[in-house]
């Protein structure tokens, strides 16, 4: 069956084995925060703030680093291909001590680095500039209060240094992504002042030169958050300008734009002017609701653009969703596999033929081919990818998830 499918694709100029090689060499960065509803392990009550919200109370949430790692291992056993871990600073291994955000050190993340090495994972990192008393007034790096700004500058600087240690130890650059929640519920009187302060703080954070072989800096914009409906300091225009000017990577989060705006169309433009791209593949439903990613049109369009632009070598694919209303391991597995299926579909596109038709102005053939491609048996290739990677195919996924729920999650009262 698989060989017949290969021949079918070959007749349209598509090399299936090459597509599978690209799948193997394209890691997806698994966000740790799906496992515990963005709580972290700092010893507080884990209340989420700063415009972020998780809904649902599905039983079995990870309550410790050990449980989170156990759940991640289970999720990874359901994912074909190679992967990375995306860790927020608030998930450090603080050994029961209270370590404030401006005092984090590489030592607090050593056990995560060791675990990643053991699991064969690369690792990415994020300063956590939210859910903290110093973010309660709504501002961090752009705060009018110099003391607050200095606190978050120290946290972000430490995060970059930790990122560099991670990258050096694992032999794979760590993407350190800065997102801050700064914004206002109601109309501001001085947008410019906030943005000037954010720029100055970011400059201070990025002042120390770190090897790009160890650390890659990324910045992430947002349209609005809960409590920052009228004004977000780090808007898309702000960070696009900042990333162009400073040649950092730009993070595009699929949930951080107007509901009808697709990040797919931005990829080709942005990559003309920034060195690298970070994606937070997510699914906003009416707002930045961070629903589990699906095999949907929006995600297919993103992956299509990455492939069509030859952008995979310059793009870091991360995920950003957190749903506590369903089994959290299922959320990781469904969302990551959906992103991977979209990537596979894009890699199996008869790209050369589509391009040729377009160059010749033959838009009829282009449209025909696009529709034909949708009806090709790509799922047979997906099942083969799962089989080669020794992970469950689509029909076997539910059993693995339910078994772990019965044997492990149910015991977490
Ligand atoms: C945990 C957050 O979702 C994450 O840091 C950030 O990327 C974001 O998207 C905030 O809306
Ligand atoms: Mn994000």
UniProtKB/TrEMBL annotation:
Catalysed reaction equations from the record: L-rhamnopyranose = L-rhamnulose
Cofactor(s) annotated in UniProt: Mn(2+)
Location of this chain's protein in the cell: Cytoplasm
EC top class, as a word: isomerase
UniProt keyword Metal-binding, yes or no: yes
GO cellular component, one term: cytoplasm
UniProt record similarity statement: Belongs to the rhamnose isomerase family.
Name of protein: L-rhamnose isomerase
Gene for this chain: rhaA
């Amino acid at each position: 069956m698989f060989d017949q499918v290969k021949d079918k694709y070959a007749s349209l100029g598509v090399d299936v084995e090459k597509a599978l090689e690209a799948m193997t060499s394209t890691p997806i960065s698994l966000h740790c925060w799906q496992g515990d509803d963005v709580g972290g392990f700092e010893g507080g009550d884990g209340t989420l703030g700063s415009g972020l919200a998780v809904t649902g109370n599905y039983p079995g949430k990870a309550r410790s680093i050990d449980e989170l790692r156990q759940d991640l291992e289970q999720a990874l056993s359901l994912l074909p291909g190679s992967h990375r871990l995306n860790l927020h600073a608030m998930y450090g291994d603080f050994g029961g001590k209270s370590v404030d955000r401006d005092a984090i050190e590489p030592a607090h993340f050593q056990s995560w680095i060791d675990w990643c090495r053991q699991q064969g994972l690369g690792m990415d990192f994020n300063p956590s500039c939210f859910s903290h008393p110093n973010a309660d007034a709504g501002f961090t790096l752009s705060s009018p209060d110099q003391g607050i700004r200095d606190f978050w500058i120290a946290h972000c600087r430490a995060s970059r240094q930790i990122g560099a240690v991670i990258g050096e130890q694992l032999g794979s650059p760590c993407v350190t992504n800065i997102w801050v929640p700064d914004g206002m519920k109601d109309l501001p009187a001085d947008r410019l002042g906030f943005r000037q302060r954010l720029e100055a703080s970011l400059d201070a954070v990025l002042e120390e030169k770190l090897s790009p072989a160890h650390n890659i800096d990324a910045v992430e914009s947002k349209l609005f958050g809960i409590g920052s409906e009228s004004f977000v300091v780090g808007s898309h225009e702000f960070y696009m300008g900042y990333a162009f000017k400073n040649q950092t990577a730009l993070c595009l989060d699929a949930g951080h734009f107007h509901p009808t705006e697709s990040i797919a169309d931005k990829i080709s433009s942005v990559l003309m002017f920034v060195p690298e791209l970070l994606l937070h593949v997510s699914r906003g439903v009416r707002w930045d609701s961070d629903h589990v990613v699906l095999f949907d049109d929006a995600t297919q369009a993103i992956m299509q653009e990455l492939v069509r632009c030859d952008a995979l070598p310059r793009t870091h694919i991360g995920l950003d969703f957190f749903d506590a209303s369903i089994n959290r391991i299922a959320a990781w597995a469904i969302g990551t596999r959906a992103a991977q299926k979209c990537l596979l579909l894009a890699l199996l596109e008869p790209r050369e033929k589509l391009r040729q038709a377009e160059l010749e102005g033959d838009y009829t053939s282009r449209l025909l081919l696009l529709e034909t491609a949708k009806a090709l048996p790509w799922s047979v290739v997906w099942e083969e990818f799962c089989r080669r990677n020794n992970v469950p195919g689509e029909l076997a996924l539910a059993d693995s998830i339910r078994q772990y729920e019965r044997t492990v999650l149910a015991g977490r009262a």
